[in-house]
Amino acid sequence: MYKLSDYHFDLPADLIAKYPAEKRSGSRLLTVNKATGTYHDKQFTDIINLLQPHDLLIFNNTKVIPARLFAQKQTGGQVEILIERLLDTKHVLAHIRASKAPKPNSFLLFNQQPIFKVIEKQDSLYQLETVCDDVLTLLETHGEMPLPPYLDRQVEESDKERYQTVYAEQQGSVAAPTAGLHFDGEILQQLQNKGVEFAYVTLHVGAGTFQPVRTEDITQHQIHHEWLTLPQETCDKVNAAKANGGRVICVGTTSVRSIETAATEEGEIKPYTGETNIFIYPGYQFKIVDAMLTNFHLPKSSLLMLVSAFAGFENIKKVYEHAVTEKYRFFSYGDAMLIL
Question: Per the domain annotation, does 79 fall within a domain?
Fold first, then answer.
C-alpha cells in the first residue's frame, strides 16, 4: 500500500465526466461502510436519509477564481498563466507555460497592454505584480475558469456557475472542492430541517491537486502547499457534535485535510491559519473525521491515497472496481461516494 503502482487502475475514457449532471443533486451516490467494506448504489438525494440530527457537515467555502489567462511576452511569444495563489490585491504566484521562460522585470501583455510585471521566479512558480487593476478585477475581466486538464474541452459559460459550490464565499481557489458541487439549496435546506449542523473551513485549492504522485515509494512524495483558515466557530461546532454523539462528516478531501491539519494528537481541534501540506496515506491515524463525502479520483493521486487511508486500501480497490463496472462518472463533474 506504500507503492505508487498499487494506486493504478484502468479507467475507460468515457467514464470521465466532461459535464456535470443536469441537476446538481442528480448524481449517483455510492455508500461505503469502512468497517465492513460493504457498499450500496444510491442516488445523491438519499443523503438526506443517511445523515442524522447532530451530525456535522464540514464544507470548504473557498471560491474558484477565473485563474487562467492567455497573454503575450513583450517579444510576442504566447504565454498561458495559471494563478496558483493570491498574495495580496496586487501580487500573485502563478504557473507560466511558454516556449521560453519570461525574465524578471519583463511585462506580460493582453491585447498589447501590460497586465503583469514579472518580479521573480520562486521554484516552479513566478511572482507577478499587476500593473493596472487589482488582481481580482483583472481576472474577472480577462480570465477564464480553470477547468481541470483531464476535461480536455473549452470552458463554457455554464462552467462559471457549475464549477463552483453554491456556498462558495472566499475567493482564492484554482480548483473546485468538487464533492460540494452536488449540493443545491434544496438539499441543504432539507438537511438543516432534519437537524444536521453545518460548519466551514477555507482551504484555497491549488493546481497541485491534479499532480500525480511520481515516487514509487509514496512516503517520499512532497505534497503541494495550500492556504488554510479554520475559525474558532468551526472548532466549537466540531466539539459540540462530538459531545452530542453526532458525526463529523467532511465534504471533500480538502475539508478532511483542513480538519486533520488543525487536530492535536489528543483528538482536539484548534483554530488554524496558515499553510498546510498534510499528506494522508494508508497508516495515517485520523483524529477527528468520522465520515467523508468525496468524488472518484485520479489514478496514482494523493487524493486516492487519502480515501484509501480512510476507508481501507482493499475496500477502496474493490469499490473502484465496482464503480468502473457500474459506469459511475469519475472526477470533478462526476458522481459521489459517501464513506461512513
Answer: yes
Q: Is residue 149 part of a domain?
A: no
Cell numbers placing 226: 495550500
Shared domain for 37 and 80, answered yes or no, is no
293 domain residue, yes or no: yes
Q: What is the pLDDT along the chain (340 residues), one digit of tens a residue?
A: 789 999 999 999 999 999 999 999 999 999 999 999 999 999 999 999 999 999 999 999 999 999 999 999 998 999 999 999 999 999 999 999 999 999 999 999 999 999 999 999 998 899 999 998 899 999 999 999 999 999 999 999 999 999 999 999 999 999 999 999 999 999 999 999 999 999 999 999 988 777 779 899 999 998 989 999 999 999 999 999 999 999 999 999 999 999 999 999 888 899 999 999 999 999 999 999 999 999 999 999 999 999 999 999 999 999 999 999 999 999 999 999 999 9
pTM surpassing 0.90? yes
214 and 94 co-located in one domain? no
Quickly tell me which residue has 464544507 as its cell: 59
